[in-house]
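WARN retry 2 of 3 for item q-0093 after timeout on previous attempt; input resubmitted unchanged.
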Amino acid sequence: MTKRRISFSAVKVDSGSNRFYVAVLSGKKLYSISEVSRAHEDPEKGYQRHLSENRAKKIAQYIDNGNLIPGSIVMSAQKSAGFRYSDKTKKISFYDEPGNFFVIDGQHRLFGAHLAKEDPKFIVTIFDALELQGEVQYFLDVNSTQRGVPKTLQLEILKFSEPEESQDKIRIKLFKELNENPKSPLCGKLSATKSVVGKLSHVPFQKALEPLFKMSAFNQATTEQKAKLL
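OK item q-0093 returned
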């Protein structure tokens, strides 16, 4: 049986001794041709972390809500892919078969795309002819240099997206008032965007308010009444 080749427009990028290709492909197509070399499944050659299905489901819901995920999926073409690039057509081509690409970064986004009803488009960065050592090095480079958004900053920036009467919006307003009002015992002692020694961040502040937010009297109160309760 003859293998089916598929092709996509792509940009070839040369950076020093490194070369990679950038294209835009369907998330479901990327999922169908890739696999992840997980450390717990293959102790000798696996290098990826364990897949969190719960995280993938959240990504799927995010996609189905009409949101975009602009970050690049990083993949390594395997020899079985028969990967080629044409300088004439500016296209990459490869065999449309499962397992022809290893995922270096983006396994949760791909699994989320697989679970989603919608089929999102992903930017994909493809390396060709990498040995295992090179794949592992890129995996370590990508994941050791990335920094997650601090939890307290995540809670602070909800003020830009949450409705006025939501618990998060009320909590953020209270946090700001307590930190800025000279009469407040917490004036100048709160940190909204990062954890600081000697200051209270959004994380413990949110935890402290949870019991109050769960009170039926609070939930049934008007905005003005809630302000007085707080």
